[in-house]
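We treat protein structure as text, and this decision shapes the records that our systems exchange. Because each token names a local backbone shape, the row as a whole describes the fold. For reference, a complete record is included directly beneath this paragraph.
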Amino acid sequence: MESKITQLKRIASLPANIRTNVAALRKLHLDMVDNDRRKNELELDLRRLYEDSCEKRRQIVTGSYVPKLADLPEGYLGMVDHSASEQPGGVPEFWLSVFRMSDLLPGMIRKEDEDALRKLVDVRVLDLGEPSPGFELEFEFEANEFFSDSVLKKRYLTSGTEIYEAIGQDIHWKEGVDLVGKSADSFFNFFNPTQYATSDPEKHEFQLKKDFEVGRYLEQWVIPRATAIFLGRDDDEQDEISDMLEDEAFCGVYSLDAETEALLVNSELGE
């Protein structure tokens, strides 16, 4: 308190124009504090909206929520009466398709993994917070013939922006269908807490680095952009051709002839 009083006496003795400048600095500081508070509140609100959107996506994918007109793009013409329809609900194989369409994950998936991944109904990320900062990936499965777990988890502990530890879980495989036991390259090795046990430090470090890369990729790219990946979009930019093709596809139409399709594919490869 003594230093504060001393400083205030010093400020009081300054010329009037400098005191005015200091008063303006205090006003600016209080505005910055208020803006920071509002930013934190806005981030919390946006986080809740994001989580609500992810939950609604899960419900649409599983078929537990039937989209209403307000949920659909403006001008959408493909609305059906779900109550009278005998067609399947939800979006079958959504996450398996997302994984196949992504950049890093296809190489992790073996043909033997696909039937189990067809049962995957949601992938979500949880912020761990203190005392062990990091994030946890949760893979939710419907009942299946492969394992008894309804949710498989992979936890990443972080220091700042760096991941320093990955913690998997044991999968409770049903008799005769242990996919990890059948192939060391199975996607489900991702959850194996001892998969990186090795006497070679360099190999161990390389494996951990690749695992951390996949964890971040799922957290920051695949989960937030799953629908865009499912639709074949590379980014969040608006694209009139993609919009048109998507709108047509939603209505059961595909209008590109082979020549135009080849031109689009070749132009994309040339970028």
Notes: The longest strand covers residues 151-159. The chain is about 45% helix and 10% strand. Residues 3 and 9 are 10 Å apart (CA to CA). The first helix runs from residue 2 to 12.
